[in-house]
Amino acid sequence: MVALELSWIGRTSSNEELVIGGTQFVGRAIVESFWPMATRVTLFHRGRTNPELFAGAHHIFGDRNEDLSGLANGQWEATIDSSAYFPAR
Prior knowledge:
This protein is α/β, with parallel strands linked by helices. The protein has a domain at 14-48. The protein is 11% helix and 21% strand. The protein has 1 helix and 4 strands; from the N terminus they run E-H-E-E-E. A 4-stranded parallel sheet has the order 3-2-1-4, with no helix packed on it. The relative contact order is 0.25.
Protein backbone atom coordinates (compact mmCIF):
# COMPACT_ATOMS: atom_id res chain seq x y z
CA MET A 1 0.00 0.00 0.00
CA VAL A 2 1.20 3.47 -0.82
CA ALA A 3 1.50 5.77 2.17
CA LEU A 4 0.45 9.33 1.41
CA GLU A 5 -0.04 12.43 3.49
CA LEU A 6 -1.81 15.36 1.87
CA SER A 7 -1.88 18.74 3.53
CA TRP A 8 -5.16 20.64 3.51
CA ILE A 9 -3.94 23.63 5.53
CA GLY A 10 -6.13 26.65 5.00
CA ARG A 11 -8.88 24.70 3.26
CA THR A 12 -12.51 25.46 3.99
CA SER A 13 -15.23 22.94 4.70
CA SER A 14 -16.51 23.21 1.12
CA ASN A 15 -13.88 20.93 -0.37
CA GLU A 16 -15.14 19.48 -3.63
CA GLU A 17 -12.60 17.21 -5.23
CA LEU A 18 -12.64 15.48 -8.62
CA VAL A 19 -10.50 12.39 -9.05
CA ILE A 20 -9.94 10.99 -12.51
CA GLY A 21 -9.95 7.26 -11.86
CA GLY A 22 -9.57 6.71 -8.15
CA THR A 23 -10.64 3.08 -7.86
CA GLN A 24 -7.31 1.33 -8.40
CA PHE A 25 -3.58 1.74 -7.77
CA VAL A 26 -2.34 5.25 -6.96
CA GLY A 27 -5.71 6.93 -7.51
CA ARG A 28 -7.32 4.71 -4.91
CA ALA A 29 -4.58 5.49 -2.37
CA ILE A 30 -5.02 9.21 -3.01
CA VAL A 31 -8.77 9.04 -2.45
CA GLU A 32 -8.30 6.99 0.73
CA SER A 33 -5.87 9.59 2.07
CA PHE A 34 -8.19 12.59 1.76
CA TRP A 35 -11.59 10.88 1.95
CA PRO A 36 -12.17 11.79 5.64
CA MET A 37 -11.35 15.48 5.00
CA ALA A 38 -13.27 16.21 1.81
CA THR A 39 -16.85 17.41 1.85
CA ARG A 40 -17.63 15.98 -1.58
CA VAL A 41 -15.63 13.62 -3.74
CA THR A 42 -16.46 12.93 -7.37
CA LEU A 43 -14.82 10.01 -9.14
CA PHE A 44 -14.72 10.00 -12.93
CA HIS A 45 -14.05 6.47 -14.17
CA ARG A 46 -15.17 3.78 -16.58
CA GLY A 47 -16.87 1.69 -13.90
CA ARG A 48 -14.85 -1.42 -14.73
CA THR A 49 -12.54 -1.70 -11.70
CA ASN A 50 -13.90 -1.59 -8.15
CA PRO A 51 -16.95 0.57 -8.95
CA GLU A 52 -18.37 -0.24 -5.52
CA LEU A 53 -15.58 1.62 -3.71
CA PHE A 54 -16.35 4.89 -1.96
CA ALA A 55 -20.12 4.48 -1.83
CA GLY A 56 -20.53 8.02 -0.47
CA ALA A 57 -18.77 9.57 -3.45
CA HIS A 58 -20.46 10.85 -6.57
CA HIS A 59 -19.51 8.56 -9.48
CA ILE A 60 -19.50 9.79 -13.06
CA PHE A 61 -18.95 7.10 -15.65
CA GLY A 62 -17.01 7.95 -18.78
CA ASP A 63 -13.72 7.48 -20.56
CA ARG A 64 -11.01 10.11 -20.85
CA ASN A 65 -10.31 8.95 -24.41
CA GLU A 66 -13.89 8.87 -25.66
CA ASP A 67 -16.47 10.68 -23.54
CA LEU A 68 -15.88 13.55 -21.13
CA SER A 69 -19.45 14.86 -21.37
CA GLY A 70 -20.24 13.77 -17.81
CA LEU A 71 -17.84 16.44 -16.56
CA ALA A 72 -19.45 19.31 -18.48
CA ASN A 73 -21.62 20.64 -15.65
CA GLY A 74 -19.38 20.09 -12.65
CA GLN A 75 -17.27 22.49 -10.61
CA TRP A 76 -14.51 21.29 -8.33
CA GLU A 77 -12.01 22.99 -6.10
CA ALA A 78 -9.30 20.55 -7.17
CA THR A 79 -8.84 17.87 -9.80
CA ILE A 80 -6.46 14.97 -9.28
CA ASP A 81 -5.37 12.83 -12.21
CA SER A 82 -2.65 10.32 -11.42
CA SER A 83 -2.44 9.00 -14.97
CA ALA A 84 0.76 9.98 -16.73
CA TYR A 85 0.56 7.96 -19.92
CA PHE A 86 0.44 10.82 -22.41
CA PRO A 87 2.14 14.22 -22.00
CA ALA A 88 -0.76 15.99 -23.73
CA ARG A 89 -3.20 15.08 -20.94
